[in-house]
Amino acid sequence: MVVMSFFDLVSSRHSVRAFKEQKMSDDTIKKILTVATKASSAGNLQSYQIFIIAKKEDKKRLAAAAHAQNFIENASVVFVFCADPAASAREYGKRGEDLYCIQDATIACSYAQLAAHSLGFSSVWIGSFDEDQVARILNLPSGLRAVAMLVVGMPAEKPEITPRRPLSEIIRTL
Ligand SMILES: Cc1cc2nc3c(=O)[nH]c(=O)nc-3n(C[C@H](O)[C@H](O)[C@H](O)COP(=O)(O)O)c2cc1C
Question: How many CB atoms lie within 10 A of CB 93?
């Protein structure tokens, strides 16, 4: 394993959408998801649940729910980050229900994506999916919302080096 500085780690991560069929060990899954839990969350509630999907048949169903993004089925594992609006609402009312739980889940997903990269895996974040269909596949308890799928595996392609908008377009000062 190559040890990279944080800045190199972040800069060298790019989405991959073709994977070699390879299993991910339980130990690696645990490492990645432990990092996910280190992310900030509103009131430290961690108002999310993370589903681990590794069976081919289930990944196929997720690929179909993601509008036929069929590469998903070849990934080692799909982590589905689900927001728990009720958990956040108990503490923070409507802002917790509408916003904080989504932020908690997505920040955790970001951490998991970087952790996977640091362990030599590639990934792509999937946001385009039919939420109801995913809820049925995961048998989600009512109220939980699938907000992001993190598709992780060993790369079978060189990633496209995606550009970024210059800071001057993004930063505004008062
Ligand atoms: C909220 C969100 C939704 C995304 N949805 C998809 C998706 O459904 N399918 C896909 O192939 N990539 C998806 N992506 C990945 C982006 O296309 C990708 O991150 C972006 O083009 C930048 O490329 P990079 O990840 O290589 O830096 C999504 C990313 C985010 C953050």
Answer: 11
Task: Establish if 138 belongs to a structural domain.
Answer: yes
Number of compact structural domains in the chain: 1
Helix then strand then coil, in percent of the chain rounded to 5, is: 45, 20, 35
Ligand 1 atom, smallest distance to 160 CA: 26
Pocket around ligand 1: residues whose beta carbon is below 6 Å from it?
A: 14-15, 17, 69, 124-128, 159, 162
In a domain, 40, yes or no: yes
Q: Could you tell me if residue 26 is inside a domain?
A: no
Task: Kindly state whether residue 4 falls inside one of the protein's structural domains.
Answer: no
Each residue's pLDDT expressed in tens, for the chain with a length of 174 residues:
667 899 999 999 999 999 999 999 999 999 999 999 999 999 999 999 999 999 999 999 999 999 999 999 999 999 999 999 999 999 999 999 999 999 999 999 999 999 999 999 999 999 999 999 999 999 999 999 999 999 999 999 999 999 999 999 999 999
